[in-house]
UniProtKB/TrEMBL annotation:
The lineage of its organism: Bacteria, Bacillati, Actinomycetota, Actinomycetes, Frankiales. Transmembrane segments: none annotated. It comes from Pseudofrankia asymbiotica. Residues 305-339, 519-543 have a biased composition (Low complexity). This is NAD(P)-dependent oxidoreductase. Residues 486-496 have a biased composition (Pro residues).
Amino acid sequence: MVVGATGYVGSRLVPELLDRGHTVRAGARTPARLADAPWHRRVEPVAADVTDPDQIAAALAGQDVLYYLVHSLHERDFVDRDRAGARTVAAAARRAGVRRIIYLGGISPVGEQLSPHLASREEVGRILVDSGVPTVVLRAAVIIGSGSASFEMLRYLTERLPVMVTPRWVHTRVQPIAIQDVLYYLTRTADLMPAHVSRGFDIGGPEVLTYWEMMKRYAAVAGLPRRVVIPVPLLTPWLSAQWVNLVTPVPHSIAVPLVASLINEVRCRDRDLAAYVPDPARGLTDYDQAVALALARTREAAVPPSWSRAATSATSATSATSTTSAGPAGPAGPARSPSEPLPTDPAWSGGTVYQDVRELPTTADAGQLWRAIESVSGEHGWWRVDEVERLDGVERPGRLRLRPRFRLPGHAWLELSVAPGAPGAPGAPGAPGAPGARGAPGSIYRQRVTFEPHGLVGHLCWKSLAPLHSAALGRMARGITDLAERPPPVGQPPVPAGQSSPPTGQPSVPAGQSSAPTGQSSVPAGQSSASAGQPSTPAGRSW
């Protein structure tokens, strides 16, 4: 039983347990949110509000092991809420006959005054250990992985501030641990821990670093310029939290208790867990590798990690700007690293990806529209071949993804796709007054530009040029649909859908040469061909 299955750790723990052959019951205060998880069809979803004794009793019935991964950090009274929830769950677990509780808490330094956040995590651990059910409390410091609140705060501060005014806590020492190592200890504890052991254990990565060292090394892994720090000893934790809230999208309710905890040195005091659960055979993940894994999803030439985390800007003739979560929706999808973003992660996590989304209906059929789209990557298309290259092949007729060759302060993608026209939509079959009503099939043109900014310059680049690229992208969308709707030149039959080459018996156009009727001059490079008597495609549609 995983209570807190929609949280950062819980959503990554569930598939690890499933892959190890366990039957999993996934509990959440709002079970409907589990539908966003890629593994939701492989578990038994249940309501598990820790403030409701009846719900918790029903959720724990017949369960052997309970993973308790709940905390209310986003609530103002999180200390009281977490205390009450732990007591409710401890009593229910004892009555249900649960044989093992596993709780993920935080490292508590000895001899220091704890922040409310760390003190609360320690209190919850004590309540569970005293429940009468054998309990293991795994205590971790900063968890490194996309979606972890502490990691996201570090990510945004480092990426957005080339020069930082910092308080004393940047020199506090911590022992970060990669999320995959946390999951390793969580899963093996259930399998290997003797029944009589009931206590806490510290877990951590192989290095002890200061927050400033973590920021510098993050910048190096991410390929950012060297960061500069100006220490300000009088900057209090409360003022620091306001500054973090201003610079990052991490919610104020989470930033305040997290920043207050940064004054405490959190590193492992013991290695006792190794007596029961050996370290991974591959070794513990070092900090640089953990950061690289967290950034890997957007380092690959792939669709950025999560459109739901994107700050967006676009206009469309037929639809408003839209965002959606990416990633496989079920077990049949490709395996994902736990360091990568998941659709269940908070909207503010996973880094920033700007997006411009447009959708236009057209009277052209899917084949005509696809041929117009394909022209953008040809040497006689609108974009010079030295400016754009194909990213990862083409699905005919369906989607084309491109990326710029010229340098940008970030990673950019252009995705062009075709969809069938919806009945009754403008330009679609049956639309009043549209050619589609006379039998034309109609289709939908979809265009999406995404930009993952690289440092502060990347954010400023997108935002400052937003009016210009918004106008250019709008002209691009209209130009492609206009081109698709034009009839073929006189005497040339339409090309069948899915075929972009000339019909058999007609010569191909040599590479680098624009097509033109015999006896007419070629169209200059960078400009599409046009039929006699028709205006040429407007210029200026480079991207």
